[in-house]
Amino acid sequence: VEQHGKKRTLVGALVMFPQSPQLRFDVYALQTTDPDGTRLDYTLVNFTDPERFARIRQKLENAWKAHAGTAQSGRNKLIQPRLRVRATGVINIQSPQQANPQILLDGPESIEILAGDVSDDKSMGTRRPPFRAPGNGRRKR
Q1: Contact in structure between 45 and 26 (CB atoms under 8 Å)
Q2: Burial of 85 (0-12, 13-18, 19+ CB in 10 A)
Q3: How buried is 42 (Cβ within 10 angstroms: 0-12 exposed, 13-18 middle, 19+ buried)?
Q4: pLDDT in tens, 22-36
Q5: What is the pTM of this model?
Q6: For the purposes of burial, counting CB atoms within 10 Å of the CB of 106, is it exposed (0-12), middle (13-18) or buried (19 or more)?
Q7: Are strands 39-45 and 27-33 parallel, antiparallel or unpaired?
Q8: 14 contacts 84 by C-beta, under 8 angstroms
Q9: Using an 8 Å Cβ cutoff, are 31 and 40 in contact?
Q10: Residues with Cβ within 8 Å of residue 119, at least 6 apart in sequence
Q11: CA neighbor of 67 nearest in space, from 140, 119, 127
Q12: Do 111 and 44 contact (CB within 8 A), yes or no?
């Protein structure tokens, strides 16, 4: 709860909570791992502008589909350990009992899609350089 209202940049694996009777559409999150190994999923949202939120979801869906074969099943979610996301926004944690904290994003520009395995990432918010394809030095998107 002490993070509530603070602007932060976090990096972690992309997570999807698939559409279900409880969810009208796929919900995306960023999974961090703190130094003691605790994993936390931050839901990626924009509550103020439905059009921007739709564009955020579209950007995340496109990245997800491009790496669909690498998803791993988790409890009520799918995790892309080889697909990393850097998200910048305001942390929203109203209560310690809240299911998942949220990162309130301005728009799709608040998210950067990175490639690379995060299975050994032990630090919440740790920044790693983007994956670079061998030989050409250009960032994969």
Answers
A1: no
A2: buried
A3: buried
A4: 667 789 999 998 889
A5: 0.76
A6: middle
A7: antiparallel
A8: yes
A9: yes
A10: 81
A11: 140
A12: yes
Provide the token pair at 121: 């990432």
- 15-to-19, 109, 115, 123, 132 alpha-carbon distances in Å: 13, 19, 14, 17, 22
Q: Between the CA of residue 37 and those of 32, 77, 119, 121, what are the distances in Å? A: 9, 19, 11, 9
Tens digits of per-residue pLDDT, 32-65? 988 898 899 999 999 999 999 999 999 999 999 8
The token duo for 139 is: 């960032």
Q: Tell how many helices (H) and how many strands (E) occur in the chain.
A: 1, 7
Element (H, E) at 67: none
* Torsion sign (Cα): 29, 13, 86, 38: positive
Token code pair at residue 112 = 């950067």
Of 124, 91, 86, which is closest to residue 3 (Cα–Cα)? 91
Amino acid identity for residue 75 in this structure: R
